[in-house]
């Protein structure tokens, strides 16, 4: 089977300033993979390059064996952009928010939307107004929008910003369930504890270079965190809390 994502020697400049320099990484099989690193380190820029929203100076990006440009012409990559509060106040119903994620050729609109809302636990809110939902509920609806056309690759840019710890945990559990359905998820996150707990692989990016690439079940050392963020970080591994459910 083709690898979900390969990034080779990717260099991106904005206004003449190098943001990413010769970044290399590979997602070899489906799973939940996270990108961590300090603010301004280039995580969103990397995501935008993968989605062909910005043109790299050089390098190669492949999604399931095709160049990202070709893949995106044929298929959809689910995408949840970084949170923007202004997006949240349109007088629009949940159903129509999710519908925005469908392509013209997707058949069975209502069934797809119902299925996506079910996967994020928001079926009961199908006819509610989006603006009347809590931040965490809105985030779930936006995930439903990102998965409604059943993409094989889903990219989430800091999806848990503003969520409390319990909601973050539920969020990670939900995203992990997508992976069980054979989807690959690439998530930008600052929740180091949850990242360590839930991810199948962690990629660390600091300014120009992708510094480290961890494989399944390996732990990131404190020394590495210090190098990445420039100060001492003590990662806390969360209890999944399943007993409370
Ligand atoms: N459109 C733009 N114009 C100019 N500079 C930009 C633009 N987009 C990003 N940058 C710069 O690129 C660098 C990386 O930004 P990016 O948003 O990719 O970082 P990030 O790792 O996602 O940060 P954060 O964790 O704060 O979201 C920053 O220095 C930023 O100022």
Automatic annotation (TrEMBL):
**Swiss-Prot/TrEMBL keywords:** ATP-binding, Nucleotide-binding, Transport
Fetch the PROSITE patterns from UniProt: ABC_TRANSPORTER_1, ABC_TRANSPORTER_2
The record places domain ABC transporter at 5-232
State the InterPro entries in the record.
Answer: AAA+_ATPase, ABC_transporter-like_ATP-bd, ABC_transporter-like_CS, Metal_Ion_Import_ABC, P-loop_NTPase
Q: Which organism is it from?
A: Pseudothermotoga lettingae (strain ATCC BAA-301 / DSM 14385 / NBRC 107922 / TMO) (Thermotoga lettingae)
> Which molecular function term from Gene Ontology is one that the record holds?
ATP hydrolysis activity
Q: What is this protein called?
A: ABC transporter related
Write out the similarity annotation. Belongs to the ABC transporter superfamily.
Q: Which SMART domains match?
A: AAA
